[in-house]
Amino acid sequence: MKWVQSFYEKQYKLIHHDGNIQISENHVKLLKKMESMVNKDFSSILELGAGMGEFAITAAKNGYHVTAIEIISSAAKHIREMASQLSIDGRLQVITDDFYHVPISQSFDVVCYLDGFGIGGDQDQRELLRKIHDWLQPSGCAIIDIYTPWYWLSTNGQEMSFSNFKRKYGFDANSCRMLDTWYDLKEPSEIYTQSLRCYSPEDLRLLLNGTGLVLTEIYPGGALDYANWQYYEEVSLIKAMSYTAILKKE
């Protein structure tokens, strides 16, 4: 997992080089989708890997008490500044730390990891899942986005260009990992790759053994059609780039 800090620092700088982070209707839709998945009243959320904070801020604006963990200090700082500007900092706690090592004694109704699960090996994932188990209230649930191996295998070699960087997808079939390489167009020698372990639902069930968690629901996500650059929000599991797994305590 040595790539994590440098990759996400670079990603933050390339995407948000102008410092502009916007909350959109998509983040409100994501919150409503989460509420539907939980299907009961809840008040507290722990978000792992909050990124730019769009979801955490949206949830706090809608009355939830949110604890957001983000390893990139510049991103965490910006989340705090936005929370203060929106007068929601009383409902949003931002922790700058690695969620594999962060000391949290509080428990939550919902623990969510909305993108990026799979940064380590299977044992790393199990360690994190055991922590999630301990962070959950007895009747709580975890909501985790899991990348599918079939979609990312199909994108192997796909390239995308943007104003200041380009990306290229790869797939390591031996270890079942998607590879996402970013190139800084202003600094051609700066190349950064994230590597995420992909899991089928059955692979995930095997991974959960010994963690105290069980898989209760699966919600297929969307997919990007690279032939016409159109994103479909909901597709069948066999076509989806990821699925949302609902995990509960045994």
TrEMBL record:
**One short Pfam family name for this protein?**
Methyltransf_25
Please verify whether the record's keywords include Repeat.
no
Keywords recorded for this protein, A-Z: Methyltransferase, Transferase
Q: Which domain of life is it from?
A: Bacteria
- The catalytic activity of this protein is classed by the Enzyme Commission as 2.1.1.-
One Gene Ontology MF term:
methyltransferase activity
What protein name applies here? Class I SAM-dependent methyltransferase
Among CDD domains, the record links this protein to:
AdoMet_MTases (cd02440)
- Describe the location of the Methyltransferase domain by residue ranges: 45-140
